[in-house]
What we know:
alpha+beta; five-stranded mixed sheet; 33% strand
Amino acid sequence: MRVEVRPAFDGAVMGAELPVRKAAAKMLQLLLSLDLPQLWSHQGLKFEKLHGMIEPVSGEQLYSLRVSSATRVIACLRQGPTLVLVSLHTQHDKAYQK
């Protein structure tokens, strides 16, 4: 699977504390080793569709992935498959706000 990183995600990772940066790097390494069926079924990542949430720039469906117990990534999935990492949220509940 291909992975693309949006500037907002990259900036949030770079501005995060060291444990979050390390967890994000570990997650990215894992994502690069998975195919799409493995992503859907991976227990640690908890990849899930965010119902009713659409990426404003592309109009694509948004999904959530777990980085740590408190940190989530918002992503969209393109054909190919390509996973686009849109944003990083260090507070779990704020990741799901529109």
